[in-house]
Design brief:
CATH class of the largest domain in chain A: Alpha Beta
CATH topology of the largest domain in chain A: BirA Bifunctional Protein, domain 2
Number of strands of chain A: 31
Distance between the termini of chain A: 33 Å
Oligomer: homodimer
């Protein structure tokens, strides 16, 4: 391909709204242009890289027997009503009405569409497992689209869905997908961090996110300095920094020498900080009590304190029963924060949030700041495991300006539920090896998870098992964002002059720069390009009538891995100059062997990216 | 690929709404499934053929230097307001509002999107010509989607747009596209009829449609029995079946011996048929006069009778001036019909339709049925060329129950505009060779046309020419519907048992049927498949545990071109059976040479489809 025959409008400057490197470079290199906020067009150079990424994904999906389908982008709203997500998706989902007034959805994801197809075709266990995917346009009405294609409104996702007769089969596909995702990212030259992720809200059990480190990442990751533990903060655990008694009886025994709990005056003291100062002690000796409001709770609360008469209903005919609203008191050691994602997962709640002041006052009988577990009735108490080690603590006394001291878990109060609800942070210890944890910001490129029965039940999917009995299949779902994967490659591979493509997703393998595209140079360059084509090397000839400096700058900017320079003098000596973008100095090679040598370098780099 | 590892849910029956062959067979062969009216998913088998069609199109676009882009499917409504089509597209365009209330369009076509991209990048004549395309999802809210993917709501279109400094350059790309389209359809094994098409409403001058014959086609084509003339009825011309005087003076001279026009009583006679019976003569001796209402007329009417005070305005700041409403009298020989597409094109009108009875009465001064050109003032008279030969005709007298006889063109009336406005029909004579024309119904698969300045002017695209002067580029637009192209291949290539794919767009080249996939047969079949793969032949092994009859039926249904049958007995004799779907009887070939022989047949068929 000749530069003059394609359309690569390179620019010296990027628009002001391009604040991250990949956005700036994709714009400047003529890879993308903007229609509107969050809506980008790929120009020929960008599309070439995009297609290579698509191809890598297709190869890896084929290798694990996932089958490609092409559903529509626009799907009936009816499907989303069946699953219950018509309401749950909110404003992020773009909707339209057709001329007959029927609801349509511009797909933000496709659990419903695939599940409806499978529902119509599935009859026997012999058809399972089934793993299906698409690579197709999606639309999510992001509130604040930014960072170019990293967080756009329309984007392309590879989304796969699998259906199974049992856990072992689901786990097999889940593991296969995980391996395929690792290979996909590796082949793109990306360093990803696979992290354990929360999946409570999805109703599943098993979820892994593939993150890249990014200053603008919207996820907080906790990583271990000593081992490969990595988790999303929503799910991260840590090694206990307390010694919990093994049982409630042991907890009671541990407080045998603690004086009886007594109320103390704490006038005008409301926060843990104020209390620490007032009592001249540390936050680790306080029991913090927070009242949470949870919505759409699936957990059975019929035996929980104060919940017997709570409203419970089915949002849709085949959906599980939920409590539209329920309140909980969470107690945790005073120096820690409650992790709302863990709490929501434990409660199987749609959402949890701190209760409003009025609710706190109603439920605790005191102003905000004086809640505590002693004597608290009327709502379930959820105990973070750190509290089980506390046998002489300070906590709110359910009265204004009063706290208890000498409060002891087991002796003075118990919980309705016990678990890990703390927010792990940098400095905590790795749950696996005890090493120090540190934080990173991450961007999610891929996500695999076990959905369980969530969609197959609500959408009435079934099959007959070996015994002719009707069963509901298990389901998994697996996504990769192509646009942000490509942008992330650039974030990881660039320098101050431009992109430095890994060969696998480079728009071209090589750019040939004739110092002047005429006469003997033209002849030599054309012959070289032809030879390269025969060897499977994609070369772009920069045939423009521009100064060499302009061509060199554009070659650096567009980041094409190998640069060949054909100048009069060198050619006369039978040589061309060859250079790997981003590595070392140019060197002269014989024109006769140049194509073969370059092809070997391309193959070697592809092989290095693909070894596994 | 093994049948058991893919997902090809074949069926003996098609749903009741599948009334055409391609819809029935695509459904039964497990190529597509339906989400809702007009919304279909391609399953793996269908997608394989679809991707081959995409690839053929990409190759042919590359061959004429058209560059692929990937704009978004969802685009800002703002672009459509700029071009003026936000209003013009009506209900066929699916619209949505995002969470901020901004208008969005689910692209039905992309003149606006491409033109806005080019507008932002174009500065110099040196960047032109530019030919760009996409292969992407489109949505049109068809009132009555039907015939499967032949007339769906969401579909995939290859749409290309070109920009030029002048007519010669536009014509070059237009001709290139026409050749590329012919090659694309030929490579798919399709017999297309390239026809001249109306392009008046698009503001262009030059348009060709690529039709396939189809009982359910929504276009009427006129074809010559003797030469290759073919035209859409909207544009079709014919050899004159009258001898028109060369000038208005000659027309007057021709009527020198005609008695003066005189009124005759024609009580209760309104239609041409009644008049023929009443006067015992033929419709060819009548001048039919029809009053038309035209909207958004671009033609300058300032000198036309009765039009001096008509309202004229610009629908958008940079749009051309139009008359929102204007009336015209069209006179034509009594045995002919007025072609409204030709009329609209001549008037540069957005739309023309017969005027309401009230308007006819107001403008002609008589009830419907008595309009005529003699004495008709107050609106422009448009004369079909057939009328210029009429020097002794009957026509309405602008009074109830009265007609004129002995009316003569030139002597008794003249027109404001003269042209060809007749609807050509079967039996008329070819304008090229005089042969008899016949009619066919056709479905449009592709359309190329010269748009002229329509979008580049309304959207303010400009560049500087060689002299530094600002110029507006000319534009062309070129589309192919992929889904209906694939369906049309099946319409042309099938028999009562199923599809008969041309090799070029077949999902697989060959299907291998082991009578039982076990033991020595399995070994032989696996080895054969591997050998075929090495030779570039895509083979599907039907490894299912089904009766041979089921496998044969599915092989016929899915239409895979070559069938290899491996049976115990034949294998023992070193033979396999080979058969071309839809042609001849199976024959035995040596297993050792079978792969090579098959590969040669595949190559030969591909070459035959691709010779040009």
């Amino acid at each position: 391909m000749k530069f003059s025959q394609t359309f690569i409008p390179t620019l010296r400057e990027a628009p002001a709204d391009a604040v991250i490197v990949s956005h700036r470079l994709m714009f400047r290199a003529g890879m993308i242009r903007k229609f509107a906020n969050g809506l980008f067009a790929y120009l020929p150079l960008g599309l070439r890289s995009f297609r290579k990424l698509e191809q890598i994904i297709r190869e890896e999906m084929a290798a694990i027997n996932s089958l490609e389908l092409k559903p529509t982008v626009v799907v009936p709203g009816e499907l989303w009503k069946e699953s219950g997500r018509w309401d749950a998706m909110g404003d992020a989902m773009l909707r339209a009405k057709n001329r007959l007034g029927a609801d349509l959805v511009i797909s933000p994801t496709a659990e419903e569409a695939f599940t409806s197809l499978v529902r119509d075709e599935l009859s026997s266990y012999r058809q399972l497992p089934l793993s299906l995917y698409q690579i197709n346009s999606k639309y999510r009405d992001e509130i604040r689209p930014r960072y170019g294609v990293m967080r756009g409104r329309e984007f392309v996702m590879k989304d796969a869905y699998s259906y199974h007769t049992g856990e072992a089969s689901l786990d097999q596909t889940y593991q296969d997908m995980g391996r395929a995702y690792r290979r996909i990212f590796k082949r793109c030259g990306l360093t990803v961090i696979p992290v354990q992720a929360d999946s409570g809200a999805m109703g599943g059990s098993g979820s892994e996110e593939f993150m890249v480190e990014s200053e603008i990442g919207d996820n907080t990751l906790l990583l271990c300095k000593d081992c490969d533990y990595a988790a999303n903060v929503e799910k991260a655990g840590c090694k206990p920094d307390f010694t919990a008694p093994p049982s409630i009886e042991a907890a009671r025994a541990a407080s045998s020498s603690t004086p009886a709990a007594e109320k103390i005056d704490t006038p005008e003291v409301k926060t843990i900080g104020e209390l620490c100062a007032f009592l001249k002690t540390s936050a680790r000796t306080f029991i913090k009590t927070l009242i949470y409001r949870a919505v759409n709770v699936e957990l059975d609360l019929s035996a929980a304190p104060g919940c017997a008469s709570l409203e419970r209903r089915r949002p849709a005919p085949d959906a599980p029963l939920v409590y539209p609203e329920a309140f909980f008191a969470v107690v945790i050691r005073g120096d820690l924060d409650v992790n709302e994602a863990k709490l929501a997962a434990a409660l199987k709640a749609g959402e949890v949030a701190l209760a409003a002041d009025g609710d706190v006052q109603r439920l605790s009988g005191a102003p905000v700041g004086f809640a505590g577990p002693l004597g608290l009735t009327g709502l379930p108490i959820i105990v973070d495991e750190t509290v089980t080690a506390m046998n002489d603590a300070v906590t709110g006394a359910l009265e204004k300006d009063l706290h208890y001291r000498h409060a002891a878990y087991g002796r003075d109060f118990e919980g309705w539920m016990l678990g890990d609800f703390r927010t792990v942070k940098a400095g905590d210890r790795c749950p696996r090896c005890g090493g120090e944890l540190y934080e990173k910001k991450g961007n999610e490129l891929g996500h695999i998870f076990k959905l369980g029965y969530k969609y197959t039940r609500s959408m009435n999917v079934s099959y007959l098992d070996e015994n002719g009995k009707t069963q509901v299949p298990l389901m998994g779902s697996y996504g990769i964002g192509l646009d942000r994967t490509l942008a992330s490659v650039i974030e990881e591979h660039h320098d101050e002059d431009g992109i430095i493509w890994p060969v696998s997703v480079a728009p071209y393998h090589a750019v040939i720069i004739p110092i002047k595209y005429a006469g003997a140079v033209k002849e030599a360059v054309d012959a070289l390009a032809k030879e390269l084509e025969g060897l499977g090397v994609e070369a772009l000839i920069d045939d423009r009538d521009e100064r060499p400096g302009v061509k060199f700058k554009d070659a650096d900017l567009t980041g094409i891995p190998f640069r060949l320079v054909a100048a009069d003098k060198n050619l006369a000596a039978g040589k061309v100059e060859i250079k790997r973008r981003g590595a070392g100095e140019p060197r002269l090679v014989g024109i006769n062997g140049a194509a073969e040598e370059l092809a070997a370098m391309v193959r070697a780099e592809l092989a290095a990216l693909d070894d596994s």
